[in-house]
Amino acid sequence: MTDILIITNYFPPETGAASNRIFHLAEGLKKHDFKVSVLTPLPNYPTGEIFDAYKGRFKDTSTKNNITIYRLWIYASNSKNKLLRLIAMLSYSFSLCWFFLWNKIPKTVIIQSPPLLVAFTSVLFLRSKKRKLILNISDLWPIAGLELGAFKKNLSYNLLEKIEYFNYKHADLILGQSNEILNHVRSLFPKKGTFLYRNYPDFVTPKVSKRVVSKGKLKMVYAGLLGIAQGVYKLCKELDYTHIQFHIYGGGTERDKIQTLISNNPELDIVYHGEVSRDTLHKVLVRYDLTIIPLLNRIYGSVPSKIFEYARLGLPMLYFGGGEGELIIQKYDLGWIAKSGDYDDLNTVISKIKSSDIELKNRKRIIKIAIEYFDFGKQLDSLIKKVQ
């Protein structure tokens, strides 16, 4: 049995795509007879506060489904203040260094990036000719931060580029969730070993029952993080509600602004449902006519994992984010495309979607595509050949 350590910033009971992705990876490796351990901070995302069950602890060690989980101290914060966010990352990096000094580390380690600084700390301390370091890149930093407006091209940005370069250089294998990410890595290190590792979900496909498309207004749903990158608050203000009723599930930094907008503008046909568990969400999502996947700005390298999750549910998608995600929607005919950042085009596309169009997308057909092309098990089998 091969020992393998996964280092990540996000893990259940935290919610969200990053947490789900690493959880499924850990579970999948365990089922393939790996002895899996996970190194992660005390749960704090997305609230920026340590969860009640873990408050007052400096660390926590537990075993769940034969996976050992080490939770380390972090100065938790989701503040917009860059200094506080830096302190939060540095605090976890400090905890990682302490752990590395006092614990035996397996010969194979998977390191999640971003956060860039946490990945750098792990690579710096663990690089060794006798150890295999696998860097799992879900977003390209600092490029993504530049496109989101979080960074400017200055000395700090140049330093982050050097950190990024260092991480790639010393990784033995790089996993990327998009071809854009892998192309970027190869532009810096043409001979570096890479593997396309999409964020495919791992859950049982629900039984398909006949669903009646709404009469009158179509019911469109968004489910996920209400953060700056998704731009759901701006979306709420820009949508034309003539043809749709907009339902929202999730939490994040824009939640309060969205609730205030709804309260002050009752004429907007928006319903906010709060946060629900993933299992509950899967049950309610299939009741809607379509879902929207928005990004405030097109982010190079980003492919929202919602695409693959919604395909597994057979839910038609309206994609509003550009980039590689747009190409996937078009290639597999999973829904509709609106030009990234163009709200007039978005409303035009929505106005042209008819009940008959949704019926033509056909839930069974979408699920069949997901099973054939977005299969977690097949992808994991291919990855394990690279890991061993």
Description:
This is Glycosyltransferase family 4 protein. Residues 17-190 form the Glycosyltransferase subfamily 4-like N-terminal domain. This protein is an alpha/beta fold and 388 residues long. The protein has 2 domains: 2-201 and 376-387, Glycogen Phosphorylase B (Rossmann fold), CATH 3.40.50.2000; 218-373, 3-Layer(aba) Sandwich (Rossmann fold). 41% of the residues lie in helices and 19% in strands. It is built from 15 helices and 14 strands. An 8-stranded mixed beta sheet has the order 3-4-2-1-5-6-7-8, with helices on both faces. It has a 6-stranded parallel beta sheet with strand order 11-10-9-12-13-14, sandwiched between helices. Helix 8 (255-264) links the parallel strand 10 and strand 11. Helix 2 (82-102) packs parallel to helix 3 (116-126), helix 3 crosses helix 5 and helix 7 runs parallel beside helix 8 (255-264). The longest helix is centred in the N-terminal third of the chain and has 21 residues, at 82-102. The radius of gyration is 21 Å and the shape is globular. The termini are close together. The model has no long low-confidence stretch (mean pLDDT 88).
